[in-house]
Amino acid sequence: MTQNEIAIRIVPTHLRWPEASTSVVWRLLHECVQQLHDFARTFDSDCTEIEGSRQLARDEIMRRRAEVGHRAMKQLAVFRPFDSASVAATREIERLHRREELTPQESEAKQKLIKALDELRGGLAAMERLLLERSKIRQRSAYCLHY
Fold first, then answer.
1. Is the pTM of this model over 0.70?
2. Rounded Cα gap, residues 29 and 14, in angstroms
3. Which of 76, 48, 54 is CA-nearest to residue 134?
C-alpha cells in the first residue's frame, strides 16, 4: 500500500479538523489518526516481508499473512489511541451538552467533535477492512468489540 492509499482510506477528513494545537481533545483525535496510519504502514510492511520471502511456499505465505492479520485484528480491538481520543471527545461533548446555553462557537465546536468522533469510528472500521483485505482473512469485527 502507498502512503496516499493509507491516508485516503483511513480518516482522510482529519485534514479538515481543527488543528491539534486547538485543545487536548483535538490533539488526541489527530494522534489517533496518525497512530492508525502508522499501524497500517507497519502491518503492510509485515505482509510485504512475508510475501517477499523466496524460501516460503505459497501456502506458507498465506498462513503467515493470516497470522499477522489475526494478530493485527486483536491489536485493533484494543487500540488505546482510539480509546483515549474517544473518551476525551465524548467527555467534551457531554460537558457542552450539559450547558444550558452555548455560544455559537461552542455549539459549532460541539458539532465538529461529534462529526470527528464519527469519522474516527469510520476510520477504525476502514482499518479493519484494510487488514482483512491485505491479509485475506475473515474474522469477527474488531470494531464491534468497541461497542
1. yes
2. 8
3. 48
The 8 Å CB, 24+ separation contacts for 125-130 are 126/9, 126/10, 126/11, 127/10, 127/36, 127/39, 127/40, 127/76, 128/73, 128/76, 130/1, 130/6, 130/9, 130/10, 130/40, 130/43
| Cell representation of residue 10 | 483511513
**Cell numbers found for residue 63:** 498462513
Residue 138: the pLDDT is: 54
Query: Rounded distance, CA 73 to CA 79, Å?
Result: 10
CA distance 145 to 89: 19
What is the rounded (10 degree) CA torsion for 41, 49, 134, 120?
A: -20
- Please write the tens of the pLDDT for every residue from 91-131: 999 999 998 899 999 999 999 999 999 999 999 999 999 99
Contacting residues for 65 by C-beta, under 8 A, at least 6 apart: 47, 50, 51, 134, 135, 136
Report the C-alpha gap between 115 and 109 in whole angstroms.
10
Give the position of cell 475473515: 138
